[in-house]
Amino acid sequence: MFTNQLALDATTAQRLIELALTPVPDVPLRDAMLYAVRGGKGLRAFLVLESARLYDVGDRAGHAAAAIEALHAYSLVHDDLPAMDNDDLRRGQPTVHRKWDEATAILVGDALQALAFEMVCAPGAGVAGEARAELALTLAQAAGAGGMVLGQALDIAAETGPALTLDQITTLQAGKTGALMTWACCAGPRIAQADITPLKAYGDALGLAFQIADDILDETGSVDAVGKAVGKDAAAGKATFVSLLGLDGAKRRAVDLVDTACDALGSFGTRADALKDAARFVIARDK
Amino acid sequence: MFTNQLALDATTAQRLIELALTPVPDVPLRDAMLYAVRGGKGLRAFLVLESARLYDVGDRAGHAAAAIEALHAYSLVHDDLPAMDNDDLRRGQPTVHRKWDEATAILVGDALQALAFEMVCAPGAGVAGEARAELALTLAQAAGAGGMVLGQALDIAAETGPALTLDQITTLQAGKTGALMTWACCAGPRIAQADITPLKAYGDALGLAFQIADDILDETGSVDAVGKAVGKDAAAGKATFVSLLGLDGAKRRAVDLVDTACDALGSFGTRADALKDAARFVIARDK
């Protein structure tokens, strides 16, 4: 049931992005943007839409779901660049700079970030102006020098500095992947102009569990199953949750975080079952 | 008088950006972001603040001025990258990827784009939520695959295709530099929630005049005066306004556009004198 919903929500986000790009002239930029947003799991779109359904505003959340998928896609395209992680493979396909070129990949990422803010501010979405401004503000904070990009900068700085401690890795990951995951979970209450506290607690725990699961996959997964290069962190001697906690310790910590995430949604009863399933899925996935 | 105001408005934008970056940890990212936003003319900040003063909302426009300067700085940092224009010099100083490295320059641009949306949505700015959402939406449209990034993509496509016609160059430049210039000019009426028609007409003409002046500088300026490489377009055999209209023809067209820009502000009388001065400055500048 959860995986069906995930596929539906991914499609909703995908279609809104395709619609937004329809007026763009037929230059490689447009094809490369569409290529970059295709094939994702759609987890973030699901988190936006499901948190919105929890507040009975699911029908107003499509644009926010598209926004987070566009923003996530941009971050992957830039992460994969030669000057960054220099990856050839993403979601089992050539990365954008391999299929096109570096200039196109830089522009695709830049345009996808702009598209994310365009989507989140879309007036046709039926969301109040105040709520759209708040969604855009918090998305910018989660994406920029106080969130995702900061996490990436800390990650790069760690490559040449001393190995990170558990606290430092937790801070780094809270920026790099956690901030946007939490944003997705808080989109529902923000659209409904309600208190974000329970969904923020859920999102914070989920984001960290997700990253621990990523580190476990990097250690134990195969490139065919994961769809991107694996074992790179260990090869680079980088500290990860697995290197610091051990494989079993990391798995236990991920399970604890999923419990924390589910507990945060206690007051919603069975209406939050899909989000609880999502939390369990995040640490059980094989890619 | 106009140049004094320009310097003051540039400082206003600069200080708001510095303030926003104060909580960012001391990683190279932060220093490089501050480096990238320093030393600009501040023309776009002035256009935001002066258009706002025309509508008596100058005191609410600081964050929008900071936003456009952050966005402009991001576009320059990414434009200068080796995979794009591969420039070593910007505003007379080493470009970000030369002073730091490519990864830092990519992240600086990404974070500055996010910062632009954070600034424009800042709730402390005293701008109504509806107006902030509209400012962010239109900024995203002007910056992304229907505006600036599209212009850059068309520019790259032109390098390998047939020489562009005057119409095609006009379309390209309307995206590449014009859309954000027009956004800056429309910020005032948008903050005041007023009709943008006169400021849009002014901005459209100003943006095109600015780009023609840029092409003239690329042809006639010296690297010392301009602060960046010159003569690159001619060396690359790229069609420009100068190659298509001739030097005198390009100068005449720029003067006509400044007249069009000033005429659009006729209903404001002498209150629009600073904006008219700015239009004349744009085609008289030597950098």
Write up this protein.
The structure is a homodimer of 287-residue chains. In chain A, strands 1-2 form a two-stranded antiparallel sheet. The longest helix of chain A has 26 residues, at 166-191. Chain A contains 14 helices and 2 strands. The first copy, chain A, has helices at residues 2-21, 28-37, 43-54, 62-79, 96-99, 102-120, 129-143, 148-160, 166-191, 197-220, 223-226, 232-235, 241-264, 273-284, and strands spanning 89-90, 93-94. Chain A starts with a helix and ends with a helix. By secondary structure, chain A is an all-alpha fold. In chain A, β1 (89-90) and β2 form a beta hairpin. Chains A and B meet through α2, α6, α7 and α8 of A and α2, α6, α7 and α8 of B.
Write the layout of secondary structure elements.
The structure is a homodimer of 287-residue chains.
Chain A: H1 2-21, H2 28-37, H3 43-54, H4 62-79, E1 89-90, E2 93-94, H5 96-99, H6 102-120, H7 129-143, H8 148-160, H9 166-191, H10 197-220, H11 223-226, H12 232-235, H13 241-264, H14 273-284
Antiparallel strand pairs in A: 1-2
Helix pairs in contact in A: 1-3, 1-4, 2-6, 3-4, 3-9, 4-6, 7-9, 8-9, 9-10, 10-13, 10-14, 13-14
Q: Strands across the major sheet of chain A, in which order? A: 1-2
Q: How many beta-strand runs of chain A?
A: 2
- Stretches of chain A where pLDDT falls below 50 for ≥5 residues? none
Query: Mind summarizing the main beta sheet of chain A?
Result: 2 strands, antiparallel
> Approximately how much beta-strand content do the residues of chain A carry?
under 5%
Assembly state (oligomeric): homodimer
Instruction: Determine the CATH superfamily of chain A.
Output: Farnesyl Diphosphate Synthase
**How many individual domains of chain A?**
1
Terminal CA distance of chain A:
19 Å
Structural class of chain A: mainly alpha
CATH architecture identity of chain A: Orthogonal Bundle
**General shape of chain A:** globular
Order of helices and strands of chain A: HHHHEEHHHHHHHHHH
